[in-house]
Write a structure and sequence with these properties.
271 residues; mainly alpha
Length: 271
Amino acid sequence: MKPLLLLALLVLTGFGEITSDQSSSKATQLIRVSYGLKDNYEFLRIINSTISNRGTELQKKYFKRCVQHHIESEILHLQMDLGRSYAELRRTQGLLIQLYILVLDDEIEELDKELGRLARLSKGKEKTETKLYLQLGYREIAVSKRKLLIGKNTRPYLYLMKLQELAFSLKSLKQAEKYVVMLGLLHDAEDEFDPEQRSFSGLINEVKRIIKKDQEKYLLYLYDSNFDSYGALDYYQQVWKQPDLFELATAIPDFDPSYIRLPEEALVPKI
């Protein structure tokens, strides 16, 4: 074989290998980012109803920041800027960990107090299911506390594992909310609860019918336990409709530093 022909074949073969490797790497990146974005959406969805229904102003501020970074990572994903999209979804996860811990600490304390109040209210007036609902409520809070502790103590860089534990903790609290509502219908109401009305819509009607004091509180618990927002308060949808991504350039002290998307050429170090 002539030297020039051999050289041409080697060059072409080399180019072919590089192109194949690059394509494989790009595909791997795309899969990793796609799955990461789905995970982040699920973590945002789980906490959304809690923030929408009973979130403090600080919690809403932090949640909005998480959604903004999620939107930014979605935009970068659509633009096939996969490296920066992955960096943004990791950033979102780091912020979500902080938000979940903040919310869980508050929710555990609140629901623990609420169950204690209902236990005292029912004393001497126990009904057939009172003890069962109290036991189940406290059990869910105990599970939530354990999962929160595991999430806090999982290695710092294992964002996904930490969020899975924290999300499980919050789901347990949403179960506890169901038992708070049932105890309220039994012992914090002005009329007898209709045991046939145990569907979501049926419980809403019963709360409105027989609970006059703190009615909205019980409705908020009920909607949150069903991963739904009471009224038109879906905060996640509100942020998506008006994301205000320019706010990312302003740091949130003790939570998230400023973020400005730079053009690719600005990221290449000058020699």
